Amino acid sequence: MAYTLPPLPYAYDALEPYIDAETMHFHHDKHHQTYVNNANVVVETLPTELQNWDPAKLLQNLDQVPADKLTAIKNNVGGHVNHSLFWELLQVGTELKGELRADIEKTFGSVDAFKEKFAAAAAGRFGSGWAWLVVQKNKLAIVSTANQDTPLMGEKYAGVFGTPILALDVWEHAYYLKYQNRRVDYIGAFWNVVNWDKVAELYAKAQ
Ligand code: MN3
């Protein structure tokens, strides 16, 4: 059961001017497609049962993956799952509200304090990786991972755990065309394109 590249759930220019259409074309059509292609090459070499699993389930059960395939699975299945989630988390014009807003205020002190802490995790991730808002045992937490690791992989493999409900890709390929080396500006712009409706949906599911 080969993985396929999911189409973007909106037009390439839907996130302008915060994330430009050219970046979205390269990021989705080239980078994500490459993760899908490379994931399919390595998944084909796994035991048949694992080949039929949902890719997220595979990342949650890395103990089952043969050691010599582990890095390729983490990088490429991780890349596929992370980007598939990331596209869905972006949209202009939604609002943080309801239970999720209340929990963010309770956990981090205020929405601004939450954004500051998340931005610091994203800016402080050395090299390539991701910043995450996760649900850990019914509590919100901010974590970051290297490369294409995801909290879904668990502490043993990603250094952190939890169910992702918000993600920010801080690989240079996510921002370099528009922002060059200014990762902090990209992170600032990100708050204009967070799909809070999707975050709230994932938050409800993760309880
Ligand atoms: Mn990326």
Essential attributes:
single chain; about 210 residues; mainly alpha; three-stranded antiparallel beta sheet; 10 helices; globular; binds manganese (III) ion
Overview of this protein structure:
With 207 residues, this protein is mainly alpha-helical. The chain is 50% helix and 11% strand. The protein is built from 10 helices and 3 strands. Strands 2-1-3 form a 3-stranded antiparallel β-sheet, sandwiched between helices. It is globular, with a radius of gyration of 17 Å. It starts with 20 loop residues before the first helix and ends with a helix. Manganese (III) ion binds at residues 27, 31, 83, 169, 171, 173-174.
